[in-house]
Amino acid sequence: MKWDRNLFKDINQVSIPSQNLWLPDVGVMNGKSSADFDFSAGTRSRLKVENGSVTWMHGAILDITCPLDVSFFPFDYQTCYLILTPWNSDIQQLLLVPYQQGSTVDNEFLPNSNVSEWEIQDVKFQQKLYTDDSNSTYQYISIAIHLKRQPLYFIVLVLVPFSMLSVLACLIFTLDDTGDRLSVAVSLVLSMTMYVVIVSSNAPRSMRTLPVLGCLEGLLIYEKDNVVDCSSKDKIALSTIPLNNVI
């Protein structure tokens, strides 16, 4: 649709309801809850006269599945894929072309990016084709979203206190024999168990790899168990009085 802008007071674009336009049957292939776009989010479209193109600015909140590799948690990087594809239109009927190429990330523009657990590092687009059983060729766009976890929360509230407790556990044997070494060792083990619960509550339940942090915590707790065992043996030995000294 085109018109002579000189005949209409130099108007080169108009805004019309999106319900009056044809909308593509685009959906999310790896969507978790709903695979279709909510087209009601974009209610208006702009129609430009220069080339007759229609610009439809549409926003959506998408819920997708993303496998995580937590081997280096909390200093991990993740890559999530968003796959967009037309459901019924082949490549002869609908061609998907990314509007932008290269890096499209600006974390300063994103709302609440400074308090989010994740930081978007990069977003890359890739066009791919596949053929079904009827030899019809379809297209889909794979959007790779590279994420970086913000580790400050886990450093301040987990790693630093956990390391301090480990140092304190090594200093238990510096206490004299009259001190209650066993109770201090048990208190340290219980405190470290609390931090293990914090880490496990933030880790995904479907993880397929064991985090290095989890292995470290397990080894340190095993060390503290040995400290408790040695402290209890020392206390039993101190409380035992040889019979040959009793006259």
Automatic annotation (TrEMBL):
Cellular component per GO, a single term: membrane
Keyword Iron: no
Record keywords: Ion channel, Ion transport, Membrane, Transmembrane, Transmembrane helix, Transport
Family: Belongs to the ligand-gated ion channel (TC 1.A.9) family.
Matches recorded under Pfam families: Neur_chan_LBD (PF02931)
Residue ranges constituting the Neurotransmitter-gated ion-channel ligand-binding domain according to the UniProt record: 1-151
GO molecular function: extracellular ligand-gated monoatomic ion channel activity; transmembrane signaling receptor activity
Highest rank taxon of the organism: Eukaryota
Lineage of origin: Eukaryota, Metazoa, Spiralia, Lophotrochozoa, Platyhelminthes
Subcellular location: Membrane
UniProt organism field: Protopolystoma xenopodis
TM stretches of this protein: 152-175, 181-199
Stated name of the protein: Neurotransmitter-gated ion-channel ligand-binding domain-containing protein
Bilayer topology: Multi-pass membrane protein
